[in-house]
Specification:
It contains 5 helices and 6 strands; from the N terminus they run βαββααβββαα. It has a 4-stranded antiparallel β-sheet with strand order 2-3-5-4. A two-stranded antiparallel sheet has the order 1-6.
């Protein structure tokens, strides 16, 4: 199965505080067709985020697709409040790293292996 790294499809992958008790992950895509594929297939699920972050799905507040920006926004409950004792990232700006290793199966995007990579060019 051919796959393409999420880092090749997204122009921005970042994390940030969305209040002292929440963290938001943003994935903004280069092109509408990749964003639409991700949205229509439901690639980003609570189960996926739970697995790659090693947290219970109950700590994932929401996954939102924001069409005008070709973006996926994922909001999680922070393990500790921002700035509290034990917080290792007060701004939440370093929490996107698990997303960087994700790959997208091309055969699901186009129905075929190598043809999928050409379709993304």
């Amino acid at each position: 199965m051919n796959e393409i790294p999420l880092t090749e499809l997204a122009s921005v992958i970042r994390s940030k505080n969305s209040g002292p008790f929440e963290l938001t992950l943003d994935i903004l895509f280069h092109r509408e067709k990749e964003y639409t594929y991700i949205k229509e297939t439901g690639f980003f699920t609570k189960e996926l985020i739970s697995r790659i972050y090693g947290i219970p799905a109950s700590r994932i507040i929401k996954i939102i697709h924001f069409d005008p920006a070709w973006a996926v926004k994922i909001t999680l409950m922070r393990p500790v409040a921002s700035g509290a004792v034990g917080d290792s990232d007060v701004y939440g700006a370093q929490q996107h790293a698990p997303l960087l290793g994700l790959t997208i199966p091309l055969d699901k995007m186009t129905g075929e292996g190598d043809e999928g990579k050409e379709a993304l060019s």
